[in-house]
Amino acid sequence: MTREKSARALWLINGLTLLAAIIFLSPVLYSIWMSFQTSDAYYAGGVDFTLRNYEVAVGQYNFARYLLNSVIVSGIVTLLGLSFATMAAFAFARFEFRGGNLMFGAVVATLMIPSHITLIPNYLTLARAGMLDSYAGLILPAISSGFAAFFLRQYIRGIPRALDEAAYMDGATPSKVLWRVIVPISKPAIFSMGLQLFIAEWNNYIWPLVAISESDLFTLQIGLARLYRVNPGEDVIDWPLVMAASTITILPVLLGFVLVERHLVRGITMGAVK
Amino acid sequence: MSSISLRDIRKSYANGPRVLHGVDLDIGDGEFVVIVGPSGCGKSTLLRLIAGLERCEDGEIVIDGRRANELPPQDRNIAMIFQNYALYPHMSVLENIAFGLELRKVPRKTREARAREVAETLQLTPYLDRKPGALSGGQRQRVAMGRAMARDTSTFLMDEPLSNLDNALRNTMRTEIKTIHQQLGATIVFVTHDQTEALSLADRIAVMKDGHLQQFDTPAAIYDRPVNRFVASFLGTPKMNFAPSDAITGWTGRRGVEVGLRPDTLRLHRERPGAASIEARLTLTEMTGSEVVLHCQTQSGVMSAIAHRGQELPAPGDRIWLEYDAAAAHLFDMQSGARV
Q: What are chain B's domains?
């Protein structure tokens, strides 16, 4: 009886989970399906399979270039952001120094500042430095993440200090302790934070819009937004083309997620428990 | 050569009480010194100061004749074994053992050969590719020891390395540590709260209490001539019996003195054997193997004595007499606890 009940409960849970997954996935699946339709067939309500939307997005609207720019910018932001956040987190978690608590408070305080507030100061600073319309202009404002430093500091505090001490006794310097002991052990948290930084930068729209005017430096989000304005005179937007471009936009992120998924889930679980 | 001298070491933690109140200790080359004391007496802090993991606020630490107060741990060339082993969880057994050599830029082939040699000594060869998470407590303890042994050093610090092991394994590892000490001729400073470990391992024992060094001497000297009541009561199983002098025949004239009698010096009798004896009632017996511990109620409190198993034993509740040897008794001042 109890076994029957629990089997039924399992079926119910699985069914509800499947339903939730379908609801969440349906817009994505619909947009992918739409991206393989011809515009005429889509508006006529028919079905006509084609790859032309992808050819147009890549060939005519330079989406391959935008994809490359997004990969370069998001990749470098993730690498540099993680490096700086890890070093800051290690310092805040392990060393006592004058003003340390105040500095950490300042880092945490940055989490409360809306990103749009920093838009104009960042623009003016980079304009004065002559860095607008460059990769540096896209990357530099994004490489310091207060949240990443805070998150990793909390994680590192959960690692027994005895491991650092054992490494010091083995002859390690503080930087060796960080890169040879702390970082490998913190891999789940670092992967999790890395994916978050990557997605945030990948989806960043406002800053590239403000900082970049040369089309060769456009990222995917800017390119995608420009598709709406391709033919300003026409009322009809070529939705299958937009969906093809959107699919190109989400694929690398999905691929990244699949690659680090195991670490990401462990990272989130660990962060929740600690 | 590896000697350690501690001069007037004082240490307090931020916003906390003082944990060390001027400790002096001279540890000779190749000596096995055990620091023993109850929890919170400052023994681990003292070890961490020698290691360089803590800074002392006063006093001097001299290692191999060189002042080491300002030296970071990585420059002291000392190996340490931690209570919780502190093995690197992402590295294999081989990598754990060889890590110290890698940091000292020993070529890969040389360090791997050295790590394998150490692993062979500690019977860890079948586990070289395993991560610490896949090892038992005893194996982890051996890896921690291997990591220290692989280093080119002759000074080892051990912070209660056996405390997480079961009794059988602890006995085996104790013998292994003693053997390794004899083989390497290294200087070892070993911290424990287990007095059996202290007595069986040490060339000399440092007994600590509340941040003060109570006595630093050979195990025999500490057992036979404890400098105060605390040392007398801390070392020896079962504990030394104490009774006010006016309750024991022979010392009734001496005021303000406590008499200490080791349980193994008391002899059991059914009838009063003479003046040098204490009347008691047997409350319970404890078999420990070849011996039986007798717990007795006397006029001045509970006392323990040891009988051999072959001996005919009284039943709990029976009246007995405990004969003592006046020459083996210890006298302590009741106020200060110091040996009289």
A: 4-233 (3.40.50.300), 237-248+259-333 (2.40.50.140)
